[in-house]
Amino acid sequence: MDQTPNTSNKRTELQMARSMCWHCQSEVTGEYYCGQCVKVQPLSKEMDYFTCLGLPRLLTIDTAALEAKYYELSRTFHPDFFQSKTEPEQQISLGNSALLNTAYHTLKDPVQRAEYLLKLEAGSAKDIRNSPPADLFEEILELQEDLEAFRSASGDAKETDQYRSKLLVDRAQLEQRRQDMDTKLAGLFTKWDTIQNRAPQPDALRPQKDDVLKEMRELLSNRTYLRNILNDVVAAMEGGHADRRH
Q1: CB–CB of 95/103 below 8 Å?
Q2: What are 26-74's pLDDT values in tens digits?
Q3: CATH for 1-108, among 1.10.287.110, 3.30.300.130, 1.10.10.10, 3.40.50.300?
Q4: What's the pTM value of the predicted model, to 2 decimals?
Q5: What average pLDDT score do residues 70-97 get?
Q6: Greatest CA separation found in the chain?
Q7: How far is CA 74 from CA 18, 53, 95, 189, 200, in A?
Q8: Contact 54, 65 (CB under 8 A)
């Protein structure tokens, strides 16, 4: 398929990879396409995902606006529209589309969105630990014993059913804990957005922001560990592999 990309509304606030057109060396200041030679321009890999999709750096987002901007840019950069173009244009299209897709899927998911905000504001999301929080430690140890007993059951149907019943109770408790954490996370989203909307400049109200980010990092750490344990329980009971993303 070879179609004409959407070049309407070319003036944007997006950060480009270069200040000059890669083809004709004319100045570019945020246009998707060079105003002189009309060649597609590469987006900056340093641009954050919120900026890429025209959203403020908030955690409660307008999903309709997110999707609208995503589809607008998809029509602009989709590789299918560049099949008859030069090799550099095709590569730029692929790079821009990859950045756009990653940004969209990250911001669309609330947990990934929060982890990404932490990366932007307070360092790498990899700092979110994957070890048990103290208040869950004893409960998790007991659950792991139940899980191991279920896996090692000799094949006796009655024994297996007993362990399965116990794991069903454990699973329900874990699900409730995760729901409670998600409720707390939603509250932190609101807290962050309130502070962000009050801040006259990006670095204003930094102590208040840092307090919220610290709470969020701790909660996401606990949630990550709980999710992994829950997935182990689900996988053991269903005899397969659980989805480990959420």
Answers
A1: no
A2: 998 777 899 899 999 999 888 999 999 999 999 999 999 999 999 999 9
A3: 1.10.287.110
A4: 0.82
A5: 95
A6: 78
A7: 21, 11, 12, 28, 33
A8: yes
